[in-house]
Amino acid sequence: xxxxDLLIFEQEPIPEHIVKKMEECKKKGMIVPSPELIKRPxxxxxxxxxxxxxxxxxxxxxxxxxxxxxxxxxxxxVSSYTKEHGAICAPYQYEGFPKSVCTSINDxxxxxxxxxxxxxxxxxxxxxxxxxxxxxxxxxxxxMFMIGNVSDERRRxxxxxxxxxxxxxxxxxxxxxxGDIGDAISKYAKSKGYSVVKELGGHGVGLEFHEDPFIAxxxxxxxxxxxxxxxxxxxxxxxxxxxxxxxxDPYNNWTISTVDGKDSAQFEHTLLVTEDGIEILTY
Length: 283
Description:
Layout: H1 3-11, H2 16-27, H3 41-64, H4 71-84, E1 88-89, E2 102-105, E3 108-110, E4 125-134, E5 137-146, H5 152-171, H6 178-191, E6 195-196, E7 202-204, E8 211-215, E9 232-235, E10 238-240, E11 246-248, E12 256-258, E13 264-266, E14 269-273, E15 278-282
Antiparallel strand pairs: 1-4, 2-4, 3-12, 4-5, 6-10, 7-8, 9-14, 10-13, 11-12, 14-15
């Protein structure tokens, strides 16, 4: 942890009533977050500023995306908008990732790499996953886009995946658990005939790109880490039309696709747990 955040933690301690409730949860055998996972007020404001730019990036993509556009053109929009607003694209060179955004088409679950020769065709569905760093603070969100004349099957997958995210957000509540989220999402997806990717999930975010806890989109109600006010994390269900299994591209070691070649969709929001509920920071 850097000196900036250590100083903030010293100057802005966790409120006593929250500490007390965390101790009560721990005595009951529940998993409670470590203190650094509880964001302090000044950190939350900085993360919100990053999130505002992140949402603006996705709005810019939404206005421009069209049939025949290349995924590199999407990357160019993301890169330009982010730089113009004084921020940095978090994916760029993250563990060697070569581009500024992830663009995942049809059967690609996530981590698709933009390319100048990869065009969006009529009927495609594509996930654009944007992550932003502003003054050292991170935010993260993704949206699905339906390109041109999309089949009823693909349209339904996209809309039900968005509903899975909404169901997950509704299940998240202060002093609930991570397992509540996965339980709600997996039950809803299964009821609609879809499967949920298990290997990948949401994550804490804000001071780093990926923090604890891991937000599984399958789970058991009442299990997992307690959701304490001040925590910031993503919910980003990856919903498959076919089997839940996935494979990684052996050539680029990044792009993850469905094992059976059937379509996948994903939506992602960054969320803040407050004492009253859940606040969406970027979408």
